[in-house]
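dumping the sequnces here before i forget
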Amino acid sequence: MHIKSEWELLNKIGALVKNRGISASDLVEPIGDDCAVFKTGDGRLGLITTDISIESIHFRRDFSDFNDIGFKAMMGNISDIAAMGGKSRFAFISLGIPDAFPEEDVLRIYDGMIDAANPAGVTIAGGDTSKSGELVINIALYGEAGDRLIRRSGASPGDIIYVTGSIGDSMAGLDILLSGKLEHEKQFPGLLEKHRRPVARFADVDELVKIFSPSSMIDISDGLLSDLRHIAEKSGTGFEIDAEKLPVSDALRSYCSIENKDFTGYALGSGEEYELLFTSAVKCMAELKTGLKVSPIGRVIDSGYFLIKNNIRTKAVITGFDHFDK
Amino acid sequence: MHIKSEWELLNKIGALVKNRGISASDLVEPIGDDCAVFKTGDGRLGLITTDISIESIHFRRDFSDFNDIGFKAMMGNISDIAAMGGKSRFAFISLGIPDAFPEEDVLRIYDGMIDAANPAGVTIAGGDTSKSGELVINIALYGEAGDRLIRRSGASPGDIIYVTGSIGDSMAGLDILLSGKLEHEKQFPGLLEKHRRPVARFADVDELVKIFSPSSMIDISDGLLSDLRHIAEKSGTGFEIDAEKLPVSDALRSYCSIENKDFTGYALGSGEEYELLFTSAVKCMAELKTGLKVSPIGRVIDSGYFLIKNNIRTKAVITGFDHFDK
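..and the predicted 3d for all of it:
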């Protein structure tokens, strides 16, 4: 049988591992959250996340510089660790390198990884290389947390849903690249930058946790609705989003106005934003020390996924990236 | 510039990471040994290794069942952790899956990984999947060690060089598969088994360490001479191998006799054996509790790499697998 859905495949893999594999009492959080979490001693927790990026699926050489490709691959993992309240520490890089791939470009990929790693306190500590037919980048990232661990599963009805920064720019940046409209590339450098070189919220997560004590958290990698569904499924709840409250950049508004598009669609569906999406019982409008805005965008409810727009409540149609969806 | 040698590329990457990346005082062993090692608290050490396997480079569907492919990929990582004296704990699997690849075969790969993981005490704790042009398997494996850590760098002139089990079978098994000689496949199932499904020495490493207190250790993944050179380079020493003492199986002797080949070449060059190669000041012939033989095969010397055969001492010609070598 051919693979129809990534989620279905992951569920089958998860069941196989659970049924046939051995369990471990010190594995605090197995497959299913942003990272796996285990006890390392001294009451400390270790976190590991891994992400595979493959050319033509995850990136295109004509859209992104190799430095940007390395930067983004590293940042996606840093974002996963931050989304559980952890601190990223050690990265392990596996590269599959095609024939005739210039050595300089391999080093540019590493340069971009280091650009992302350094401010987040990450040391590249190991890896592996091989020949391959297409460029493959896999990063495994180890992080640490004390006893503070924020899962996807802690949301309760009544909690407020918050998101950091503004959302939607990454998808708009990709649209501009796909359209090939050079004038847009010049007019909206911020949208392209967010697509090529998004910055995860590792610098804000400590302050955010202090202010909001999040009941659940995830980073936006698939898209706001899709990632919010992960929280809802793990927490056994539903959600209700106020479309008018979604924080979008002036650049996205302006681009959507010119192209006659609805910016709400971008805000709800754009992936690889690496913004933090969380729920909290704390009611608060906050701007963090770095200037990062935190916006309330809806509420956790008992069940169902809803969108409120122009005072009309409709079922949310969840789109998200599935590699095997056709 | 195109990539000419994997080692040269790794050296350049290592230099870049050292010059531009941040260092970490709790990173005990950075890039360069079988695993990276870091402090996790309570005086305990964490170890991480990662290996990428790519179809047509590392395995062939017509030579190995998907179960074997998963088994061997997992075992290679378990072998790396054992080679530093650690205990493997949590595995993170990244898969790149081609179009039209059957779901059943993905699950067979996982089945093989679990077959390797269970006896070694490894829990599959996370991962990532993506579409890809060719099958890609990356495993990152986390292990633990107390204060006992065996590096590649501790060998001293005068130490005896030991190897576990018998060596050479894996390369002979591959030769049989490449030759397509069906009668050999039937006659030498053990050679094929060692190529398809080698078992790392995780079950013996504790006893081995107690008896021998190894000054340095590595697992045979590139080939005996090539891996011994890693020890020599890290330790600043040379080595001298007694060709007649190399432990080879009866099957390999018999195969080499029929094919009119020299089994010494197989013993010296065969990779992916996952036997342990170590140096020790302890002089001892041992058979471990599991029945595993440990054989002295030579001595650590001040400098130079030598082979003694028929009482003639010659410079060792080191061959080993380099993905980018042409």
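DSSP finds ten helices and 14 strands in chain B.
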